[in-house]
Design a protein that fits this description.
heterodimer; A: MetI-like fold; 14 helices; globular; B: 13 helices; flat
Chain lengths: 316, 293
């Protein structure tokens, strides 16, 4: 177990270094680099820009700048927003809860529905239900999230008037119920793709578990089929799902960005897009690095959880 | 009159191929293939047959609902014919999807083969690079790159490929690693064939099945991604239409002109679903190990 943890932590650390290099290269590609916001300012001459470049050390060799930048990141200095001058870490922190709320609620929906479809599809293999679930999942994976969001708004907000068309709450109404009411549609929209993914993985994992010897043993002992499925099969099939939850984080963030745009949800995705619009590169870079960090940490937590739950790794 | 001179026409050779027959026996894959063929033909020839040009602005005909006169799918906020725009946009979206797939597959296959066949260090470096790229949410990376580089259609194709090669690389790497110790590869080494020859001529042809399947699914992914960034305004730039940027701005007219949103989105969904169906059929036909679908 200790050896496993050590190698897993090391792996994450290496990955962090690689991710930071990729991130820095993207930063380097940005038009005009860090001073682009001033390049078009009539108050600044070419000489001023050259002098500031010198002062800020932007003319140093690339690897020196990289080490400087990464050292800043480690110390919590993620730069300041071009837009309002506040620290990038604060700007991001303000927008994280909304995104986590959206990601969390749609994950709950996706896991609940997806696992159920997957188990049922596997226990009733090649049935009508299984066929429809398979084809349905392929179609669900093909629907652009933003389009599904627009259709959802059109039907449930504009035509039926059951749900709000956007925003996180009605101004002046901070009740939990109001938040929940606003959360329903975006969560379902974001969940659609993930219901499809969870149901397919759960189906495969359940089929794998069903063919195991311990299931035959349980059946031979005369355990009821319901108990066999619920205890022996699902219990084992859920294990790889923990890994899947970690792997899904980048795809959830991608979906969240698009969903937040359609529903004017004040989260990280919305912030990313706004910052791109304002050429606020420090925030763009901060979000890029933060999202990668979130992915790496989520995968690490998922793998450690599996190790703790699975006696084959825990006792190794 | 003679009654003996009839001949049995043998089935064409390609039909006797097991893979081909299996693929054509897959109903959804066949449906996907027909849809893509129709869509492609419509996008190539359709614009010449329609009465309106995709860029012709007619402010008197703004917001015409579908089936108004010759505007089969209605008109947009500038009075341009949506049917004509949809087909012209289809050309862009399908081309971007196809070439992004081609680039991503070539890049992914190259890295996968080198990583799978190379030594431990090469493998570790390349596969960690794959993990690194996979750690970024695709859309965040795509948007950052789209802003950094000028979003011309060619650049969009390149950056979609740059964020989409990792899956192929992983699949190819796993496949190559399982093949590299097989007898025919050992025989090749014994014969003194060069590393490049073994990688390209001996191993690569044996990985074609998984590569073809992954490539088909990559087209679907690339079309979706182009739609995402164009919808957000950072992809294909107007006046050039793409399925994604036709949806850009559709949200504000959702109440009064819902067809602006419904029609291009339906085109994207149909195209992407079709490619996913084809990919599924190819996976069955080529006997590629089916992990989750």
């Amino acid at each position: 177990m200790a050896a496993f943890l050590f190698s897993r932590f090391l792996q994450s650390a290496v990955l962090l270094v690689i991710v930071s290099i990729i991130g820095f290269l993207v930063l380097y590609l940005m038009p005009g680099g860090p001073l682009s916001q001033y390049a078009l300012d009539p108050g600044m001459t070419q000489e001023d820009i050259a002098r500031i470049t010198e002062q800020l050390g932007l003319n140093r060799p690339v690897h020196v700048q990289y080490l400087d930048w990464i050292w800043g990141l480690v110390q919590g200095d993620w730069g300041t927003s071009f837009r309002d001058g506040s620290p990038v870490t604060q700007v991001i922190a303000r927008h994280v809860p909304a995104t986590l709320l959206l990601m969390g609620s749609s994950t709950v929906i996706a896991v609940a529905i997806g696992t159920w479809i997957g188990i049922r599809g596997a226990t009733h293999r090649y049935s009508g239900f299984d066929y429809i679930a398979t084809v349905g999942a392929m179609i669900a994976l093909s629907i652009p999230t933003f389009w599904f969001g627009l259709i959802g708004i059109y039907v449930f907000a504009l035509r039926l008037d059951w749900l709000p068309a956007g925003n996180m709450y009605t101004i002046g109404d901070g009740s939990v119920l109001n938040y929940l009411h606003h959360l329903i549609l975006p969560s379902i929209v974001l969940a659609l793709v993930h219901i499809a993914i969870w149901s397919r993985f759960m189906r495969t994992a359940t089929l794998d578990a069903i063919s195991q010897d311990f299931v035959k043993t349980a059946r031979a002992k005369g355990v009821s089929e319901r108990r066999v499925v619920m205890k022996h099969v699902v219990g084992n099939a859920l294990l790889p799902m923990i890994t899947l939850a970690g792997v899904q984080v980048p795809s959830l963030l991608t979906g969240a960005l698009v969903t937040e745009t359609v529903f004017t949800w004040p989260g990280m995705g919305r912030l990313f897009l706004d910052s791109l619009g304002y050429s606020d590169y420090p925030v763009v870079m901060g979000l890029l690095m933060f999202s990668a960090l979130l992915t790496i940490v989520a995968n690490l937590i998922a793998d450690i959880t599996v190790a703790l739950v699975d006696p084959r790794i825990r006792l190794a | 009159m003679s009654t003996t001179d009839f001949t049995v026409t043998p089935l064409p050779r390609w039909w006797q191929n097991r893979v081909v027959r299996k693929f054509f026996g897959h109903r959804l894959a066949l449906l996907g293939l027909v849809m893509i063929a129709l869509l492609t033909l419509a996008c190539i020839f359709g614009p010449y047959l329609l009465p309106y040009d995709s860029l012709y602005i007619d402010l008197r005909a703004r917001f015409a609902p579908p089936l108004t006169g010759d505007h089969y799918f209605g008109t947009d906020p500038l009075g341009r014919d949506i049917a004509a725009r949809l087909l012209m946009a289809g050309r862009i979206s399908l081309l971007v999807g196809f070439f992004a797939m081609l680039l991503a597959t070539i890049l992914g296959t190259f890295i996968g083969v080198v990583a799978g066949y190379g030594g431990r260090v090469v493998n570790a470096v390349l596969m960690r690079l794959v993990d690194g790229f996979l750690s970024f949410p695709t859309i965040f990376m795509l948007l950052a790159l789209a802003v950094a580089l000028q979003p011309s259609p060619i650049m969009i194709t390149i950056i979609i490929a740059l964020t989409g090669w990792m899956e192929v690389a992983r699949i190819v790497e796993a496949e190559v690693r399982s093949l590299r110790e097989r007898e025919f590869v050992l025989a090749g080494r014994m014969l003194g064939l060069s590393q490049a020859h073994i990688m390209i001529r001996e191993i690569l042809p044996n990985c074609m099945g998984p590569i073809i399947v992954a490539a088909t699914l990559t087209v679907a992914r690339a079309i979706l991604l182009e739609a995402y960034i164009s919808f957000l305004g950072f992809g294909i730039q107007p006046p050039l239409p793409s399925w994604g940027n036709m949806l850009n701005g559709a949200q504000q007219y959702l109440g009064s002109a819902p067809w602006l949103a419904i029609i291009p989105g339906a085109a994207i969904t149909i195209a992407v679903t079709s490619f996913n169906f084809i990919g599924d059929g190819l996976r069955d036909a080529l006997d590629v190990r089916n992990d989750n679908f």
